[in-house]
Amino acid sequence: MCSSKRRFSREFDTRIAIARSEQKFRAYKCPHCDGWHLYKSKNLSVIEERMPPASAEKSHYHEHAEQVFYVLSGIASFEVEGDKLIVMARESICIKPGIVHKIYNLTDQDVEFLVISAPPSEGDRINIEL
User: At a CB cut-off of 8 Å and minimum separation 6, what does 42 contact?
Assistant: First the structure.
């Protein structure tokens, strides 16, 4: 049992960032997904994305960003350096910098996932025409 009676201040502590669903803001909307930034700093980005059925992004790579995709719901398909992979809900995949990849949704349900990038991938995307 904790004996401390300390109460937390209502003032925002800049060392801690809490993202609540009502605080998300739309980061982007494009043909293959909607995305919301949950956290963004110079070193890290956490984005929640929703990809509709029968959609895909273009193959690309990042020169600096390492990315982790964590599937929240649905089934995500990935192509990584030409290999096709399936990532189910509650599974993740890590993409190192310089690795050509894309995510796509072959199902009839939305796929919801987190994209965690370090450093943030904004401005670090090189599209590949295949």
Answer: 119, 120
- 66-73 sheet: strands from edge to edge: 25-30, 33-40, 45-51, 111-118, 66-73, 92-95
Q: Is the peptide bond before 52 cis (omega within 30 degrees of 0)?
A: no
- Structural domain boundaries in the chain: 39-113
**Cα torsion angle, 112, 116, 122, 124, sign:** negative
Give the C-alpha separation, 95 to 61, whole Å: 9
Give me the architecture of the 39-113 domain, per CATH: Sandwich (2.60)
Q: Tell me, what's the pLDDT at 31?
A: 74
Mean pLDDT of the 57-72 span: 97
Q: What are phi and psi of 21, to 5 degrees?
A: -55, -35
The three-class DSSP label of residue 69 is strand
Residue 103: the pLDDT is 97
Structure tokens at 35: 């995305």
